[in-house]
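Lab meeting, action items carried over

1. Structure of the two-component assembly. Owner: GW. Status: complete.
Input record:
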Amino acid sequence: MADIKVAAYICKGCGLGERLDTDALVKIAQKDGKVPLAKSHDFLCNADGVAMIKNDIANEGVTHIMIGACSRRAKTEAFFFPENAVARANLREGVIWIRPDTEEARETTQDMAEDYIRMGCAEVKAMTAPGGNTNTGSSKTLLVVGGGVTGMTTAIEASKTGYSVVLVEKSGELGGWAGKLYKRTPVHEPFKSPADTGVADLASLVMGDSNIKVYLNATIAKTDGAPGRFVVDIATESGATHTEDIGAIVQATGFTLYDMNKLPELGGGKSPNVVDQAGLEALAKAAAAGDGIIRRPSDNQPVKSVVFVQCAGQRDPTGTHLSYCSGFCCNASIKQAMYFKDTNPSVDTTIIYTDLRTPGNGEDFYRSAQEKGVIFTKGKVAEVVPNGNTSTVKFNDLILGDTDASMVDVDLVVLATGQVANSGINIDALTKPQVEGQEGESAAAGTVEVKPISILNLTYRQGPDVPQLKQGFTDSHFICFPYETRRTGIYTAGPVRRPMDIVQAREDATGAALKAIQALENAELGRAAHPRSGDLSFPKVRLEGCTQCKRCTVECPFGAIDEDEKRFPVFNESRCRRCGTCMGACPVRVISFENYSVNTVGAQIKAVDIPDEFSEKPRILILACENDAYPALDMAGMSRNEYSAFVRIIPIRCLGSVNTIWITDALNAGYDGVMLMGCKSGDEYQCHFVKGSELGRVRMSKIDDTLKTLNLESERVRDLEVAITDIERVPDMINKYAAELVAVGPSPFKGF
Amino acid sequence: MSANTALAEKYRNNFLKEIEEQVEMGDWVKMCMQCGVCSGSCPTNFQSAWEHPPQELFMMIRAGKREEVLTTTSMWNCTSCYNCIVRCPRKLPITHIMHGIAEYAHRLGKAPKMQPTRFFSGLFWKNCTHTGRVNELKLSMGLYFKDGFGAGIKEGMKMKDVAIGLLKAKRLNPFELLGGHKCKDQKGIQAMLKKAYEIERSRKAAKMAG
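Predicted assembly:
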């Protein structure tokens, strides 16, 4: 740290020169920031300004740069100095754009700008330029787990992009669910009749591709390592184990139909003439191999009437069965009804539905089924009573209001039972003590089976499979980052992450393949994957100070940290997403990043000038999540939504990275209040690091003890949920809180 | 039909097939997707005139409720405003289907006898085919006396001012009651009608034969 040289640059463009006393800011940088080299420039981000900085780096030996100009989110290409530590003081979006341009406001606006310069100088001095993780691997091979449509598509897409693929399939042949189908719902014009599944073509493409190595009858015995250097043991049927070096993994393990034996009231398991959709596909395949006539299983007589029961064991509000809609089954039943109508139009085919949902081009397909004479009856099936070779279907006719409607002498009943993810072991259920299984818990456990067999067999401390979110589907934010799991370099695609049909699964497969390729490329270069894609910083730990409390290993949302035999944490940098949750959790503060640490934020907190209690200038610290809250604040500036001049905002990587020492420091320094702005947590989370904001909030819920020991009011710390869209709301929240604090009165710690 | 066979017929396609074969535009019934836009669009429905709105009638057909469908007054209430046809997302010619079902119920003698629309239709047809011209006085009086002599007198008294006005303006000739004016070629008219019936019969027979 001996040979650092800090330079501060103040920009006068974008109105900064007119609104602020930039000469005073330069002086502040020199005097309070103790920066040897401080300059202002009329237009810092233009070629001349950037050249000035570059010249100082080359000729003046500048290593650390503090730029007082616009937000750190703006002009990132101009102010790109990869060899140097860079801090940005947000004078534009954070000061002049959120303050009125009036004479009265001038003083407080200038105060604000001066504090940001002090903070920027303090921050940059606590930073070093990130050098990138060196503990990397360079395997460029993709492992695809599962040989269904999703898996095969992933393999083919990755191979086309030039990457080698290892594909592992549990069964003896490729195809998965789609391989069991007689035909699929059409994906091409005119969407009128069931189409060929295309599985055979896909399988022959995979088998014929020299880039793709296929293991059939094989499972994953062990997955060790990290992105770029996974070592995967593949166990084959013969008992032999093959070891492969893998860069990234796509898990495409698909789904199993919900077990119809759990639906005895709908005749599930009670008669061979009540089948699920897989059962009907098998009948149709057998018929196609013979005379084309679908026969009822009990006595092999041709089926003359068939009833399809939609939402069987799905969309169940009681918690006994699946609570969700699987999305594919309406189209599947329409397709299966056509199997009958296309061979013999006189077969009575009735689909009993509550809400018919036909995604994709299903509407045309639905119409085509009506034209073919498939009858759609809106109703809720109450009971299927098998009796000899036929069944009686009792239902509530929702159009005619007939609660006692029934169809008798039905030859075959098909239950549309929906998808249950093959997602391996629910590691959260494993870690949760069994006593917690009260009503809600046990209902959830009844809904989704905890399958005893792990798919990936990860050697991670946090468990052998990827975490699940709801109903057994793997955790991925279905809008913002669909294929991400909470294990870096491992992606899920297809029905294992949410219910879907073949079209969606193929789209998923392509997306996941590309994400996996990005992950292994980033891993080789020692960079972070999503959401801090390309970030070169990584957590460094001072093990001498570690007390082995395990908070970091337990809390890491991505299972990046293992433990060694002496129970010290082992950081697997390539698995890390750089959220800093470990840093926020560490009670002895031994975890830090080169450009983000307890120090870089702590120094900023301490750098702010705190006026005394008689000045009527309170100070409020805002720790704002850089993913949502900070952009929202920037955008508030762009829309010129004004907020209080008494706030000092510090962007943080995630609410999870907030160490309670910052709060204590701030309150001790005389701040009147602290606002924490993080993303929504829980099942409907919006946190980019999935669990970061939740863990941060759990930590902050205990802040009251700290406040009590300081003898402070609980209003002094406020935890807020802010979304990126809160452009109008965020200034409002700030102003309300500032007004509230006036009522609470100034902090008693001022002036010490 | 025994109770058991009645049960067996329920939700089977037999009645739907009958409608498809016998009713004009009946083969559209299966295309209804039960969205209910027709019912929501029907102006008569605002006066609760419909025992069963169109989409419900279609469902009843599919459910095999033959008696209920053929004896209901619902389709007789259609005013042919065509709102449902315009709005139906499945492009069903609902107005035509309504008239088709009504006509079929009439043909089978199942339609409610005194339903005003049906009564008037019958009256109009008889009146018009009798002489080849519509005798307005006889037609309106026929309608007045639909529900009996007393009700007819009452209705007539209610309308007497209008009738006197029409008399004064020479728009109403009381002597029309004695027979009224006719088409010149009475025989020709009857022959034409006979031929028309014959054509329709053979058309329906051809349809039945497939």
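2. GW to write a short summary for the group page. Key points so far: The first helix of chain A runs from residue 16 to 19. Residues 433-451 of chain A have pLDDT under 50 and may be disordered.
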